[in-house]
Design goal:
The protein has 460 residues and is an alpha/beta fold. The chain has two domains: 187 residues, Aspartate Aminotransferase, domain 1; 255 residues, Type I PLP-dependent aspartate aminotransferase-like (Major domain) (Aspartate Aminotransferase, domain 2), CATH 3.40.640.10. It is built from 14 helices and 19 strands. Bound molecules: 4'-deoxy-4'-aminopyridoxal-5'-phosphate. 4'-deoxy-4'-aminopyridoxal-5'-phosphate (PMP) binds next to helix 5.
């Protein structure tokens, strides 16, 4: 969706600094928490980078809303960074958790809910014959890579620029910086302390660009798998094109390379069959997380039985290792089972949620147009992304406008003052959000953008 505006973007450090001070002044209790925390945790919190200028400290949450320590109420579009698709404290998830708490919360031996949650997953994920649980999406993609290597005897992996698969060495390769022409994309490594050898293992592919297919063919002899995130959340909800995903499937088949869908965000969010259903393509393996854990830590690898069975010892007693003290822990299994059961009960749930997403994307496009700020709104289903000043609909992370990221943080901050909390320039909706909540978010964008215009962030 495009908004035709006339303004030019002003990336002015003084304006940004003044906005920062104004926002901080409105959050005195959060400021106190932030200052105390900085004495102990570098940067106050692992979460700090998501929220600008400071993280709001949350006191409690209910349904579509979070309440901070300053007594402010927010329409929550962060949703725990994705998992809280039913909103907060959904009664069925809450009572399942309370019941489990009474019986004990961490054992070691398994609980029945592991198979029950697993059944809900394999019955809905295209190509899902078996599933194995771990503690996070990061662990899931690492495990999927190990399985792919064990299955193919090849060592390297390919991933798309702008896609995030966790914070291990390969998960962030070419995440923030694309280098080289699309035909010969070079791998960049985000984050210090990475092994240079890791970069060698990663083939960076241009997203939504046919050069990716030639590259896969060229590198096939060494390539175990290709990871793709159908909606790249870290690139502000840039969406893969359907024909592109279909051709990717065909090229992987042609080259004997395993296709892995990273559905940590999209799984059970776009619909019961996630991005695979959305694109109508069946991957060899799927990594999951977030929604399937009902708000508790989780990751999972789901896919063909012959691949997942590689975690069992072979004739030589060797296997792919998937471990973790908290893998398939009772609280997560119970919460995940309760959440998926609610989601899958009624065929109307996902269409209604996705309609809310359409309403939001349309409304945000209108808010940009009304304030004369050019930009584009991306996303699918209940996921949205905001690209200020993008000259055309972004089709890959290469199309993102750098300057808009800095100014976008000011927009995030002013939205906070209007009662909306979102992740950096993208967010999610839940089944707890009403049309009125969505309209409040749209109205908040209008006000925040108008304020920024008044303060001189947009010229013209
Ligand atoms: N893959 C994707 C697409 C993600 O968005 C994330 C987390 N945001 C991960 C993997 C990693 O999951 P986790 O944070 O649970 O390790």
């Amino acid at each position: 969706m495009a908004a035709q505006g006339t303004s030019a973007l002003i990336d002015n450090s003084e304006l940004i600094e003044a906005a920062k001070r104004r926002i901080e002044a409105e959050l005195p209790e959060s400021m106190k928490c932030f200052e105390v925390a900085q004495q102990v945790v570098p940067g106050a919190s692992g979460r700090s980078r998501f929220f600008w200028p400071i993280p709001t400290y949350i006191d409690h949450a209910d349904g579509a809303y979070m309440y901070d320590v300053d007594g402010r109420r927010y329409v929550d579009c962060v949703l725990g960074l994705g998992p809280m698709i039913l909103g907060h404290r959904h009664p069925e998830v809450l009572s399942a958790l309370q019941e489990q708490l009474e019986r004990g919360w961490h054992f070691g031996p398994p609980v029945r809910e592991e198979a029950a949650l697993g059944r809900l997953i394999v019955d809905n994920v295209p190509g899902g014959e078996r599933v194995v649980f771990v503690g996070s999406g990061t662990e899931a993609s690492l495990a999927a890579l190990h399985i792919a290597r064990a299955a193919t005897g090849r060592s390297r992996l390919a991933k798309f620029e702008g896609g995030y698969h966790g914070w291990h060495d390969f998960g962030m390769g070419s995440l923030r910086r694309a280098a080289g022409p699309p035909e010969q994309a070079q791998t960049t490594m985000d984050g210090l302390g990475r092994s240079p050898a890791a970069a060698h293992d990663i083939v960076a592919l241009p997203f939504n660009h046919p050069a990716a297919f030639e590259r896969i063919r060229r590198e096939a002899a060494d390539l175990a798998c290709v990871f793709i995130e159908g909606v790249q959340a870290s690139s502000c909800a840039v969406v893969a094109e359907r024909d592109f995903v279909h051709e990717l499937r065909a090229v992987c088949d042609e080259c004997g390379v395993l296709l892995i869908f990273d559905e940590v965000i999209t799984g059970f969010r776009l619909g019961p069959s996630g991005a695979a259903g959305y694109f109508d393509v069946t991957p060899d393996m799927t990594t999951l997380g977030k929604v399937i854990g009902g708000g508790f830590p989780i990751g999972a690898v789901c896919g063909r039985a012959d691949l997942l069975n590689l975690i069992l010892p072979n004739a030589r007693g060797e296997s792919v290792v998937m471990a973790g003290t908290f893998s398939a822990n009772p609280m997560t299994m119970v919460a995940g089972k309760a959440q998926l059961s609610v989601l899958l009960r009624d065929d109307a749930t996902y269409p209604a949620l996705n309609r809310l997403g359409d309403r939001l994307r349309q409304g945000l496009t209108g808010a940009l147009a009304d304030t004369g700020v050019p930009g584009h709104i991306t996303g699918a289903g209940s996921i949205y992304g905001v690209h200020l000043f993008a000259p055309a609909m972004p089709r890959s992370s290469r199309d993102r406008v750098d300057v808009s990221k800095r100014v976008g943080r000011v927009l995030d901050g002013y939205l906070l003052l209007e009662g909306v909390l979102q992740a950096p320039m993208h967010g999610f909706l839940s089944t707890a959000h009403s049309e009125a909540d969505v309209d409040l978010v749209i109205g908040a964008y209008g006000k925040a953008l108008a304020r920024m215009k008044e303060e001189g962030f947009f010229a013209g």
